[in-house]
Specification:
The protein has 233 residues and is of the alpha+beta class. The longest helix is centred in the last third of the chain and has 49 residues, at 184-232. The N and C termini lie far apart (159 Å). Strands 2-3-1-4-5 form a five-stranded antiparallel beta sheet. Strand 4 (108-114) and strand 5 (117-120) form a beta hairpin. It contains nine helices and five strands. The chain has a domain at 3-130: Ribosomal protein L10, N-terminal RNA-binding domain (Alpha-Beta Plaits, 2-Layer Sandwich), CATH 3.30.70. It has helices at residues 3-19, 33-45, 55-65, 68-71, 90-104, 121-128, 133-171, 177-181, 184-232; strands at 20-27, 48-52, 78-84, 108-114, 117-120. Helix 1 packs across helix 3, helix 2 packs antiparallel against helix 5 (90-104) and helix 5 crosses helix 6 (121-128).
Length: 233
């Protein structure tokens, strides 16, 4: 690698450090080429990139990026995981590294940086045990939506209960139905119903009076007919 190539690598790595939300540093001794390919795929799903760079070049890149804490872990074979600030998931990337280490017995956390702050190996391990970002978002939405759902249900129940109570009061005659309905239309309908009921009552009374008169006149006729018969004889 000539000087220009080295300068290009230093510039590229410095840019990756600056643009990353987090940088995880691991010891990659013992990892095979096929295993590294599998790891790159898993990290790609988390919006992260796995890269091996010579320590001398990385140290210069860390100086240029202002990440002095990275220089403290540049001892022995070193690989970097750059988690993109846009579309990357820090917890998911750390989880991918931790699971790969358990499954293949390779990779050791050295440290790193996150949002400009130094990370220890233990802190990276703690990040790997956190839920992925999508899971956290789902939990947050559930926490926010739950009180709102309860409030809506409570209001609906309150309104329904109030309507039932008003109907019961109207049925018992304690409040005029027109007032419960709350409008002139209800009053008009009630008045019309009252007039109709009055007309029906009057008609019923007239019918009963007519029937009573008929019943009273019928015996008189029969008596007359009975009286006239002897006279004819």
């Amino acid at each position: 690698m000539n000087r220009d190539q080295k300068a290009a690598v230093i510039e590229e790595v410095a840019t990756q450090i600056q643009d990353a939300e987090a940088v995880f540093v691991v010891d990659y001794r013992g990892i095979s080429v096929p295993q590294a390919a599998v790891l790159r795929t898993r990290l790609g799903d988390a919006g992260a990139r796995f890269r091996v760079v010579k320590n001398t070049l990385t140290e210069l890149a860390a100086d240029r990026a202002g990440a002095d804490s990275l220089k403290e872990v540049l001892d022995g074979p070193t690989a970097f995981t750059f988690v993109a600030a846009e579309g990357g998931d820090v917890a998911l990337a750390a989880k991918a590294l931790a699971e790969f280490r358990r499954q293949n017995d390779v990779l050791e956390f050295k440290g790193g940086v996150m949002n400009g702050e130094a990370l220890s190996a233990e802190q990276i391990g703690a990040l790997s045990r956190l839920p992925a970002r999508d899971v956290l978002h789902g939990q947050l939405v559930g926490m926010i939506a739950s009180p709102i759902t309860g409030l809506v249900r409570g209001l609906n129940a309150l309104i329904a209960g109030l309507a039932i109570q008003l109907k019961q009061i109207a049925d018992e005659g304690m409040v005029p139905r027109g007032e419960v309905a709350g409008g002139d239309q209800a009053d008009s309908e009630q008045d019309a119903q009252a007039d109709q009921a009055a007309d029906e009552a009057a008609q019923s009374a007239e019918g009963e009076e007519t029937e009573s008169s008929s019943e009273e006149s019928a015996p008189a006729s029969e008596e007359t007919e009975t009286t006239e018969t002897p006279e004819g004889e």
